[in-house]
TrEMBL record:
It is found in: Chromosome, Centromere, Kinetochore; Nucleus. The lineage of its organism: Eukaryota, Metazoa, Chordata, Craniata, Vertebrata. Belongs to the NUF2 family. This is Kinetochore protein NUF2. GO terms for molecular function: microtubule binding; protein-containing complex binding. Its main location: nucleus. GO terms for cellular component: cytosol; Ndc80 complex; nucleoplasm.
């Protein structure tokens, strides 16, 4: 049995598709169902095959009438009538394996059969539909690829600018190198503390996990014990069911025996009563029969006891009959439930089998679809993957640069705050120093004036004795 890898189209669907998508103009208007199916016309079928090849491979009409150049033929005019058919067969033999048809022969071109042509055309139409769908997807991918390339170029320029900025930012000035070293040492110490805390938490978690595993093992052991008890209870239940099934036959036999005994006792009672009545009549006449009457009375008492026993046995039999009827009703219910369950199981099995067949078909179609898609889109995917890798690398570099810029901004803010504090401290010190200098200048000026006055007094003293002399 052939494995179907594409849906079979009806002749009406094939004709309508050929009219609307493959043929055009007068060819589409003049195409009739009888030209392809029933008694197919060779020229119409060849024309359809040629149009499909023109659509798929872009083969021009004159190529079907051209002699191959790499073949030396003595009299090429002999092959003029057969050339189009031969070229058509060569091109169709190349196309149909792509459509998952591998049994195309030259007889299908020269003497086509209806079923085979329907199968070939449905496979070709399926492939043409798939080709059109994937062509649209490929064109959208091409457009997306162009836009991605433009974005990639923009990102590359942005990346280069960011790299230049990073180089500027990464160069730490000599003034801040000591602070940067101190910050790196602090970061390493923090990393060590975090690692120690992580290891401690990991050990605690492993202990908790081991405890949980032991609890789970204990619970699984208890569960296995419960399963064993359940299995034993099920076996006992099956044994009881078998006993319940066997008991109705024994009850029937016991019932029949009891019925026979009841009949015998009734007969014997009737006979005793008749004899008693006869003997009672005789007792009135013959007192000598008293002994026999007494004996018969004793027998009657025994018979009464036997009747009481029989009544108790009959009550037991009735109880057993009621139990048997209830058991039979339960059995009937169980049988009906079993039959309904069997029907449900068979229906579900049928649904599962149909679902499995559909799933297999869908898997085959999906695998074929994937294979063709991978064949068409491998190169594009590789290029797209390379572009995606570059874009992700650029994104990572941008994130790293942003993080570094943020860190540098934070460091710059901290350094600016420190510089402001240093400036304020220096300003306060300078003001204090200026005040002290003003005070010293004032004190120096006052001492200088005092010294000048003393010197003037000294000079006057020196001059006065000279003048007197």
């Amino acid at each position: 049995m052939e494995t179907l890898t594409f849906p079979r189209y009806s002749p009406d669907d094939i004709i309508s598709y050929l009219r609307s998508h493959v043929l055009a103009g007068a060819e589409a208007r003049n195409l009739v169902k009888g030209d392809v199916f029933g008694n197919p016309k060779l020229e119409v079928l060849h024309m359809i095959y040629m149009r499909i090849l023109q659509k798929v491979y872009g083969i021009r009409l004159e190529h079907f009438y051209m002699m191959p150049v790499n073949v030396d033929i003595m009299y090429p005019q002999i092959f003029e009538g057969f050339l189009p058919v031969c070229n058509l067969y060569i091109h169709m033999e190349r196309l149909l394996p792509v459509c998952r048809i591998n049994d195309f022969q030259i007889a299908d071109v020269l003497n086509p059969k209806t079923k085979r042509t329907a199968r070939f055309l449905s496979g070709i139409l399926n492939f043409v539909n798939f080709r059109e769908f994937r062509r649209e997807v490929y064109l959208t991918l091409q457009l997306n690829y162009k836009s991605a390339m433009e974005k990639h170029q923009q990102l590359e320029t942005a990346n280069q600018e960011a790299a230049a900025k990073l180089e500027k930012l990464n160069t730490v000035p000599v003034e801040h190198q000591a602070e940067v070293k101190q910050l790196t040492d602090n970061i390493r110490e923090l990393e060590q503390l975090l690692r120690q805390d992580y290891r401690r938490k990991q050990t605690a978690l492993q202990e908790v996990i081991s405890q949980k595993k032991s609890d789970i093992a204990e619970s699984t052991r208890k569960l296995n014990e419960l399963k064993v008890t359940m299995a034993t209870l099920k076996e006992e239940q099956e044994q009881l069911k078998s006993k319940i099934v066997e008991s109705p036959e024994e009850l029937k036999n016991y019932k029949e025996l009891m019925k026979e005994t009841v009949k015998k006792l009734k007969k014997s009672k009737q006979e005793v009563i008749e004899k008693y009545e006869g003997y009672r009549d005789l007792v009135e006449v013959l007192p000598s029969c008293q002994l026999e009457v007494q004996l018969y009375q004793k027998k009657m008492e025994r018979q009464g006891a036997n009747v009481e026993r029989l009544a108790s046995v009959l009550s037991e039999v009735r109880n057993l009959e009621d139990q048997l009827e209830s058991a039979q009703i339960e059995l009937k219910k169980g049988k009906t439930d079993e039959m309904s369950l069997k029907r449900l199981v068979t229906a579900k099995h049928e649904k599962l089998s149909t679902a499995e067949i559909r799933i297999k078909k869908k898997r085959e179609d999906v695998e074929q679809y994937k294979h063709t898609v991978f064949e068409y889109c491998n190169k594009v995917q590789e290029k797209r993957g390379a572009v995606y890798d570059k874009v992700t690398a650029i994104h990572k570099e941008i994130q790293q640069t942003r993080f570094r810029i943020q860190q540098l901004n934070e460091n710059a803010e901290k350094e600016e705050m420190k510089a402001k504090e240093i400036y304020l401290n220096l300003k306060a010190g300078l003001e204090k120093r200026h005040d002290s200098l003003v005070k010293t200048a004032k004190s120096y000026a006052a001492s200088r004036e005092d010294k000048i006055a003393e010197l003037k007094k000294g000079l006057l003293r020196v001059q006065t004795p000279g003048s007197s002399s």
